[in-house]
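Subgroup meeting minutes
Present: P.N., E.W., G.H.
Scribe: E.W.

1. P.N. recapped why we're keeping a running log of single-chain structure predictions: easier to compare across weeks, and new members can see raw inputs and outputs side by side.
2. G.H. added today's entry (235 aa).
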Amino acid sequence: MEPIRLNKYLVDAGVCSRREADRLMEAGKIVVDGKKAELGMKVTGAESITVNGKRVGQPPTKHVYLAYHKPIGIICTSDPKAKDNIIEAVNYPERIFHIGRLDVASSGLILLTNDGDIVNKILRAEGKHEKEYVVTIDRAVTEDFVRQMSTGIEIMGRKTYPAKVEKLGDMSFAITLVEGKNRQIRRMCEAMHVNVKRLERIRVMNVELGGLPQGKWRHLTPGEEKELLAMLGPR
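Output recorded in log:
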């Protein structure tokens, strides 16, 4: 294996993000062959690498990309101590981690992978990667509501990016976001004095939920995988 930066190696091994790897190095929590790791150092994988005292295994030789239909009640965390965590719910035989999250009261599409390289690329707001949701609220969807949700709502101290919003029924609409603030749609609706009754994500970039049953997962098709990686740009 050609030498690569240690922070990327840890991403590929599914340990943490590059930023977190750098933070851990600065804190002296990463040790390579008995010596504390330094920012910018490279490894081949033949070294003994530990993070917080735990030995790091080899990165996977084959990348896995899954689509999962998260039910309400499943928590998007990889903490094994958390009840109803998404990793145990999926129960995939290899180590994987979820890309982004849906709050516990929401359902819909979540992508999971062992390819740490793509996680931040999908989540970065500047990438403008679309995520589409279907939402049911407790009042009528008016033209003014659609207009304001489309142009942006002031939440958490700033205005949200413009979004695609389409009325689906008297009390339901579809919204496509290119950012992912914590509980963003619920906060936007709250700012409009509206309560969300049901929220489901139906698409992440080119991958659609389709007819995947709740609580089930599937591998991305070769076509979906190829298109997704192409949309994310060079590795």
